[in-house]
Design brief:
six-stranded parallel beta sheet, 10% strand, single chain, 6-phosphogluconate dehydrogenase C-terminal fold, 2 domains, alpha/beta
């Protein structure tokens, strides 16, 4: 098992904190230091045993670090990398946990210059509605996918080191290009968040919102669960993946337009056909997830 002597984490909330707790539980990290915007958050992370110490600045965090994880909102990635760059030592690998990758890769090239090979973009596909160190869980990544989007300058050794860290957290490693990643997640992650936020905001702004929320039940709760996520984080993700997300929004609005026309025409069979196709597609997806989970328990490729 690969054991990291020192890991520095920028952002010790849900994502960074869970990464730290998982590595500690696995015995894969000797020392974890935290960096963040708010001292109270870092102090709380230390109290909870997420980090071993609070870094005395970026230089202190980067010194002799085997691995640096940036687990901050994607809009901050460029500035964080620029602050790390002067102190980035040979042998240190940097990765991130951002939900977009093309913009992150671009920011990394601008910030790191000739050290770009030491940055391996990544994205853990896991989360909760809660935020902050208190939301961190050692088991958050168990059985979850982590997508790595290696750059041409990355060495196989460095990519493997980042992959190994996530594997110690119980994650399953996948690889996509930055462009593939952003196109995929615009459809299956970023668009659903926009829809959930839009629906809840629409209802909240109605004159009789209190009455509507009073009668909202489990279906509404389940559909809108992700609207409880961090507004700051999802603002940044939406803008960072603007082009791909706009394309998905346009396609979805066309689908809504078709369904509105069918509803206005009273075309029950056509509406049912859409519902049936969606139902079957969801059943197939859930079955595939369950099969993959069973395979992971039993072993195999």
């Amino acid at each position: 098992m690969l054991v990291f002597k020192k890991i520095a984490i920028f952002g010790v909330g849900l994502i960074g904190g869970s990464f730290a707790l998982a590595l500690k539980k696995a015995g894969a990290a000797e020392r974890i230091v935290g960096v963040g915007r708010h001292l109270t958050t870092l102090q709380r992370a230390r109290e909870l045993g997420i980090i071993d110490q609070i870094a005395n600045g970026v230089a202190d965090a980067a010194a002799d670090a085997d691995l640096i994880l940036i687990a901050a909102p994607v809009a901050q990635t460029g500035a964080i990398l620029a602050s790390i760059a002067p102190h980035l030592q040979a042998g240190t690998v940097v990765t991130d946990a951002g939900s977009t990758k093309s913009d992150v890769a671009l920011a990394a090239r601008a910030a790191l210059g000739g050290k770009i090979g030491q940055f391996v973009p990544g994205h853990p596909i896991a989360g909760r509605e809660q935020n902050g160190p208190e939301a961190a869980l050692a088991e958050l990544y168990v059985g979850k996918k982590v997508v790595l989007a290696p750059l041409p300058e990355n060495s196989a050794v460095d990519v493997a080191r980042v992959a190994a860290a996530w594997q110690q957290c119980g994650a399953l490693i996948h690889q996509l290009s930055a462009q593939q990643h952003d196109a995929v997640f615009a459809a299956v992650s970023h668009l659903p968040h926009v829809l959930a936020y839009a629906l809840v905001d629409d209802i909240a702004n109605k004159p009789h919102a209190a009455s509507l929320f009073q009668y909202a039940a489990s279906g509404f709760r389940d559909f809108t669960r992700i609207a409880g996520s961090s507004p700051e984080m999802w603002r940044d993700i939406s803008l960072a993946n603007q082009s791909a997300l706009l394309g998905e929004l346009d396609a979805y609005m066309m689908q809504l337009g078709r369904m509105r026309a069918l509803l206005a025409a009273g075309d029950g069979p056509a509406l049912e056909a859409i519902y049936s196709n969606a139902q079957q597609a969801r059943h197939n997806w859930i079955s595939a997830i369950e099969a993959a989970e069973q395979q992971n328990k039993e072993g195999g490729d």
